[in-house]
Design goal:
The structure holds two protein chains of two kinds.
Chain A: E1 3-8, E2 11-20, H1 22-39, E3 43-54, H2 56-71, E4 75-79, H3 83-91, E5 99-100
Parallel strand pairs in A: 2-3, 3-4, 4-5
Antiparallel strand pairs in A: 1-2
Helix pairs in contact in A: 1-2
Chain B: E1 5-12, H1 17-29, H2 36-57, E2 64-72, E3 76-83, H3 91-94, H4 110-117, E4 120-126, E5 130-138
The chains are: A alpha/beta, B alpha+beta.
The structure holds adenosine-5'-triphosphate and magnesium ion.
Chain lengths: 101, 147
């Protein structure tokens, strides 16, 4: 199970874990889709502390979550980003689109 | 320039092999005593090149991917990922940030990431023949290392 969902106040925190590459991205995308569609969070926080590896396939997962939040008028923030994932996000300029703590 | 060491691995374009390719490259590079950040850079670049071969080169079939790893004098690591897939009609365009022929699951940042994580990137491609991506990274010698 690559995602774990917890909620508090109006914020929904989803912890992602494992390797987010092309091989693992689809399952994570499906689970995130389901979580967002059923909870419709006004504020979504993605906790990346358990992510051991991420490449551009992970960027597509995160941008999809961003679009879904935008569609329901919600916001997206990412937190506890490990160094490797951070470097990938920086190289791709994702910080211009999503708030990275 | 002659390589000091080299390893070649051939694998099928199954996504399960992405992790294998990353680990193989990281293991081979270990003899250069890279830092953890350098290992992460190597794994990331390999993941991008191999994923492209899996996703784009062989869109509706399985094909062969050849990854050749070489080390040159001065701690230079070369990673070459070769496929015999559909090829890229316009390499310069393909290397542009955000350019993608993939759908929702792609962001068009693979080549940009390879470029920023490695010291050099060369892409050779011929439509219907295949694509060869060659990347180089210099691993600086660290004080106290036995390299
Ligand atoms: N090995 C390959 N064979 C055929 N086409 C390729 C290959 N590698 C890349 N391409 C083409 O180049 C484009 C850009 O590749 P790049 O890796 O930069 O982005 P992407 O794969 O589309 O998205 P991302 O890497 O962000 O998931 C691809 O969309 C594809 O059209
Ligand atoms: Mg790519």
């Amino acid at each position: 199970m690559p995602i774990t969902v917890t909620s508090r106040d109006s914020a929904l925190t989803i912890a992602l874990s494992g390797e987010i590459d092309h091989h693992g991205a689809r399952e994570m995308m499906t689970q995130l889709d389901d979580a967002i569609a059923t909870r419709l969070p006004a504020r979504l926080v993605l906790d990346l502390s358990g992510v051991t590896f991420m490449d551009s396939s992970g960027i597509a997962v995160l941008l999809r979550a961003l679009r879904q939040e935008q569609q329901i008028g919600g916001s997206l923030r990412m937190t506890n980003i490990p160094t490797q994932a951070r470097r990938v996000l920086d190289a791709a300029g994702v910080g211009r689109l999503i708030t990275l703590d | 320039m002659k390589a000091i060491d080299q390893v070649t691995v051939t694998f099928t374009s199954r996504s399960a092999n992405e992790g294998f390719a990353r680990a193989a490259a990281a293991c081979f590079a270990a003899q250069l005593d890279p830092t953890l950040d350098e290992v992460a850079d190597i794994k990331t670049a390999v993941s991008e090149a191999v994923t492209n071969a899996i996703v784009h080169a062989y869109p509706d079939c399985l094909g062969k991917i050849v990854m050749r790893l070489r080390i040159f004098d001065g701690g230079v690591l070369e990673i070459q990922v070769k496929d015999s897939g559909v090829g890229i009609p316009d390499v310069d365009k393909a290397r542009t940030p955000l350019y993608t022929t993939g759908g929702e699951e792609r962001s068009g940042m693979g080549f940009t990431i390879m470029e920023s994580f490695m010291d050099g990137l060369r892409v050779r491609s011929q439509p219907d023949k295949g694509t060869t991506v060659t990347m180089r990274k210099r691993i600086a010698r660290r004080a106290g290392s036995s390299q």
